[in-house]
Amino acid sequence: MNKAEYILRKPFVKTLIAIVLGFLVAGIILVIAGYPPIESLKALFDGVFSSSKHLSNVIIKSTPLIMIGIGVAFAFKTGLFNIGAEGQFIIGCVAAVVVGIECDFHPVIQIPLVLLAGAVAGGLYGGFIGLLKARFGIHEVLTSIMMNWIALYFSNWVCNLDRYHKPDTLGTYTVNKSGYTKILSEWKMTSEGKETLLESEFLTNTLLKTDVNTGIIVAIILAAIVSFLLFRTAKGYELRAVGFNRFAAEFAGINVNKNILHSMLISGAICGLAAALYITGNSPHSIATLSAFENYGFNGLSVCLIAASSPIGCIFAGLLFGGLIYGGQSMQYAVGAPSELINIVIGIIVFFVALTHVIPILFAKFSKGGKKHDK
Amino acid sequence: MISNITLFIGIMLMYSTPLVFAALGGVITERAGVTNLGIEGMMSLGAFVGAAAAYSTGNPWIGFAAAGLVGGVVAFFHAFASITCRADQTISGIAINMIGPGLALFLCRLMYDGATMTHPITNKIPKIFGSTLKGALGNLNVDVTVVIALIFATLVWFLLYKTKWGLHIRAVGEHPAAADTMGINVFKTRYVCTVASGVLAGFGGGAMTLAIISQFNPTAISGQGFIALAAVIFGKWTPHGAYGACLLFGGAQALTVILGGGAFAIPSEILAMLPYVLTIVILILFVGRSAAPKASGVPYEKGAR
Amino acid sequence: MANVSSEYAVQMHGVTKRFGSFYALENMDLDVKRGTIHSLLGENGAGKSTLMNVLYGLYQADEGEIFVNGKKVDIKNPNVAIANGIGMVHQHFMLVDDFTVTQNIILGNETTSGLGVVDMKKARQQILEIVEKYGLEVDPDARVSDISVGMQQRVEILKTLYRGAELLILDEPTAVLTPQEIEELMTIMRNLINDGKAIIIITHKLKEIKASSDTCTIIRRGKYIDTIGVEHVTENELATLMVGHEVKLVVDKEPAKPGEVVFEIKNLIVKDDRKLDVVKDFNLQVRKGEIVGIAGIDGNGQKELMEAVNCLRPAAGGEILVNGKPIANTTPRKVIDNGVSTIPEDRHKRGLVLDYTVNENAVLERYREAPFSKNGILNRKEIENFTKELIEEFDVRPDDCGPKRAAGLSGGNQQKVIIGREIAMDPDVLIAVQPTRGLDVGAIETVHKTLIRERDKGKAVLLISFELDEVMDVSDTIAVIYDGHIQDVFKQGTVDESTIGLLMAGGKGNE
Fold first, then answer.
1. What count of other Cβ atoms lies within 10 Å of the Cβ of residue C369?
2. Interchain contact, C364 vs A252, CB within 8 Å
3. How do strand C373-374 and strand C261-271 relate by DSSP bridges?
4. Touching C: which chains, 3+ CB pairs < 8 A?
5. Which of A47, B259, C277, C363 has its CA 20 to 30 A from that of B206?
6. H/E stretch holding C480
7. CA–CA distance, C57 with B182 (Å, rounded to integer)
8. Contact at 8 Å (CB) between C432 and C461?
9. Region for C114 from its dihedrals, namely left if φ exceeds 0, alpha if ψ lies in -120 to 50, beta otherwise
């Protein structure tokens, strides 16, 4: 295998190629639809990079996607397709809201409590899927799809309970402020706070105008922890062995069913944690009645796929995804290209990610020569 | 009483029909060894194109055919990626699920001045007993697509278990190397089956917008593709199993509607959960271990033994 | 290479086949006369199967020509091969488990009655005609997953005859048969020859060549070596031609010095997937410093027996004792912790995680123990060092394969990794199931030497193999399994092959 082929095999390079191709095709679609491609893409980039407010918003929007991506990636590494991330996220939100409303402790206790609630709820919800697979052999995709819908309606039911329903709105009350993970959320609302911040343009743009929260820090730390867990610990070794070849793992004494359960518990917990951070970190800090899925889970799944199931890769893939969605809105303002286009672009990038693994193989085929049989 | 029963049957058949088409497609492609997760995306595009075509031509059947056609075209891309390029079929399917609805909405805006829904079509798919039957019997006056779905299910069953092509398809999905050595073209068989599943998924989308809601809007297809996928698994990858599973879902939905309008004070959200909870309970009690066709989801490589 | 003529059923001249930069075949020649049985002899990996795959149209040669009955043909795919009267019975059967015998035979060649509907009745009739003619006993309506391996092979042969094959290629046909069944196969082959057909047998088994073939072509590393008449050549001469140097065909070993019983199976009953008893009142003892070999045909309960020993399957009755401790119906982990290491039959399914590196595979049972992990965190250095030692001791190639995926190693080297790993656990009981399957002569020699060395260290070794020669050469004590229990037990040297063969098939020995 020569140098060029070696480079082409690197996952990062393959993803990069997929992204470039994705944008190319997007450009073509824009032209066909009658929108100016260069301006549209420029609006997209400006929408992300032109101001620290935008950058801040991208990071904020990406945070839940990164974390869900990590959660799904974890399950993938152990051989499970957690398409139930959507339901686990919803349940996490519900748990976080309920605990966040019912309890009102000092932030040092309240924040971990709310986050824990989300993680536990998501974990149990995902663990149930794992249990059904381990005990009864029921396909996790089937259970997950059912659980997603159950979560959706459950969320709506909680939303409409008198105890939690905020009158004249579609949603619940907000969680108590003690649970907020936004940075300096109280202080920046005071007049003295605003004065101080307005002195710096950077701070105005980031702190004042956006919901800057600690979520991204948690996400990055989580990526590191999950990576470490998967690749450096005995537990991670077990989980991956089960994912690659459950028969050999079983033969070598590894408890396959237990690991399937653990995997879904952890995967669900990560998604639930993402949900709790989302609630505590972003206005309106509440949930609302949903008529359809918001697709956090499915988008997180796409993030995971673009990142080739690498936890660290999910950080970048999540940022890319978040950037595309957020920048897409600017594209809408600027040239009138509708938001669906962004979904199409993202879908095309994912499609090319599927195809790009073939590139090094094609390359090898076309390279000439060959040495004689010698062993 | 009778009226309630017929109402139940009628709603069950109505809800299940789009699912049946899509699930049959899922069965065919999985049996041939290709995983098609993109059913949702294919249904969305089928739903839009069907409604648009029916609106412009005034003929719902042209719409139906167009829906199938566009589903087939999308499936062709999936087939190309999965079979020729040996790409990861899961990723390709997910990609189609993102592109499909987006493209459908995009085209809708393009063709209808920025609107996200099509105009209601004037000629829907007709009912089997004509348009005037009312009352208890009237509940059974279902759309013709219901009957077509049943016919398709029977045809797929016949194809898979009685004909030589069915034998080929099943061989390709269970043991492609064996089929290859017997001279069966594995690639061609898989291509045909994948495209067929797209056509059927398109029909499913069309059945939705041409018979049930008579127009396309953003929530026309929201999750039916995944339910169809669930039906395939639930039905153990058989056409009759999938059909039954779709009826089960449709029946649970019908139950929700009937109970919702009735005397029981169950919150509507809990009622809405009913079909899904019921499915899980049935799975645990009755269905158990499921085994996909052995070569499903694995690209075929000659000589890789 | 012979001149092109119609007295030859098939002729392959100058065939070359490359996979990337690797030459599987280089200028290979093969000439097979009609009405003869012709062997193709070579080690594992020499290119025999590749050559036949080219002939059958599964691969296309990069260079060379093929002639059938004197006419040049271009075999683009199996359909063309079949149309030219070529049929192939693969080493690993190409049968769809869920289909019936009839469905498998007619696949791709179905007689239909309108609308593509398969005419099953006609198919059965046609099949039964062929069965009668050549003596190939099968049950047309049985599911392939339910029938014996011997019958599966007959189904494979029927597939070719159903399509009018005049030239049959049999790839390692006797790998799964008893001596008696091999006799039956010989009879079937003679019937086919007398009918004017030609047969090519791919094999590395010298005894079979002597017993069956008229002529033999030897292939080594993809190249043509020689074609000889089988009648006047010895097995040793064949072996030398195959490998390129002198080969010792008999295993060297000291007599055994067995100690106390370390591994004991008492009255074991195990059920198979259909809830039928398949291991029936099984009794066996293995002593320290002894190799016990279980001879038997595949499908007599060996698989389920092993699964029960490894606790992958429940035991429905009886006991399994290691050093007196019962281990049946516990967990695979407990079995390993009690000093039982197993070299599994299927190295890809059970033996290795192919996507893991060799380093990671080397500690598959012990990753949690010191020094490979501490407090739950893996110690990469220790794992690497351990693997290096293993690679050196067992001559795994390439010797820098530690950080590379196990999937990249050859079958023989993969097996060495597994063997090294299991032995490194210093077990009291070492079980080896089909340990030399798919290995070349050199590797086979190494494995046998290793088993004997472990025996000499005082381990109790249990060998389960479908190669009768292996069991008879390597074991100190030979047990014969048939229908789920032990028929009889012999000391090495006190019994001959035909007696064992009879017992393997359910006969009663010398009664």
1. 12
2. yes
3. unpaired
4. A, B
5. B259
6. strand C477-482
7. 11
8. yes
9. left
Residue A175's DSSP bridge partners are none
Task: Return the sign of the alpha-carbon dihedral for residues C358, C364, C369, C375.
Answer: positive
The structure tokens listed for C377 are 């965190």
Q: Which of B179, B181, B303 sits opposite C88 (nearest CB)?
A: B181
Structure tokens at C212: 């069956």
Contacts of C59 in chain B (CB under 8 A): 302-303
Check residue C145 and report its DSSP letter: G
Residue B123 in 3-state DSSP? coil
Give residue for tokens 């869900």. Answer: A68
C-alpha distances in angstroms, A231 versus B160, C357, C374, C510?
45, 12, 14, 60
Between CA A174 and CA A101 the distance in angstroms is 7
Q: Is C246 exposed, middle or buried (0-12, 13-18, 19+ CB in 10 A)?
A: exposed
d(CA C449, CA A75): 44
On the 0-12 / 13-18 / 19+ scale of CB atoms within 10 A, C336 is buried
Instruction: Tell me the C-alpha distance between A70 and A267, whole Å.
Output: 8
Q: In a 10 Å sphere around its CB, with 0-12 CB exposed, 13-18 middle and 19+ buried, how is residue A143 labelled?
A: buried
Closest CA to A252 of C415, C372, C366: C366
Question: Contacts of residue A337 in chain B, CB cutoff 8 Å?
Answer: none
Residue among B86, B91, B96 whose CB faces A305 most closely: B91
- Residue A161's CB is within 10 A of a number of other CB atoms, namely 12
Q: Which helix (H) or strand (E) holds C374?
A: strand C373-374
Cis peptide before A284 (omega within 30 of 0): yes
Angle at A316 between CA A54 and CA A42, to 5 degrees: 45
A46 shares contact with chain C (CB less than 8 Å): no
- Distance CA(C39)–CA(C204), nearest Å, equals 9
C60 close to C16: Cβ distance less than 8 angstroms = no
Query: What pairing do the DSSP bridges indicate for beta strands C215-220 and C223-229?
Result: antiparallel
* Coil vs helix vs strand at C135: coil
Q: Does residue A244 contact residue A64 with C-beta atoms inside 8 Å? A: no
Q: With an 8 Å Cβ cutoff, are C99 and B168 in contact?
A: no
CB-closest option in B167, B294, B305 to C103: B167
Tens of pLDDT along chain C (511 residues)? 778 888 899 999 999 998 877 788 999 999 999 999 999 988 777 888 889 989 999 889 999 999 999 899 999 988 899 999 999 998 778 899 889 999 999 998 888 887 788 888 888 999 999 888 888 888 888 999 888 777 888 899 999 999 889 999 998 887 767 667 788 888 889 888 998 899 999 987 788 888 889 999 999 888 999 899 998 888 888 888 887 776 666 777 888 788 899 999 999 999 988 788 999 999 999 999 999 999 988 778 898 999 999 999 999 999 999 999 999 999 999 999 999 999 998 888 899 999 999 999 999 999 988 889 888 899 999 999 999 999 988 888 788 888 988 888 877 888 989 999 999 999 999 999 989 887 777 778 888 989 999 999 999 999 999 888 889 889 999 999 988 989 899 998 888 888 888 888 777 654 4
From residue C179, how far is each of C135, C435, C501, C504 by CA, in Å? 18, 21, 6, 9
Strand order of the β-sheet with C37-41 is C86-89, C167-171, C198-203, C37-41, C215-220, C223-229
Write the DSSP string, A84-143: THHHHHHHHHHHHHHHHHH----HHHHHHHHHHHHHHHHHHHHHHHHHHHHHH---HHHH
Distance CA(C93)–CA(C340), nearest Å, equals: 32
Long-range Cβ contacts of A111-117 (<8 Å, 24+ apart): A111/A178, A111/A179, A111/A181, A111/A280, A113/A179, A114/A175, A114/A179, A114/A276, A114/A279, A114/A280, A115/A273, A115/A276, A115/A277, A115/A280, A116/A276, A117/A276
Q: Which two tokens stand for residue C303?
A: 């698989």
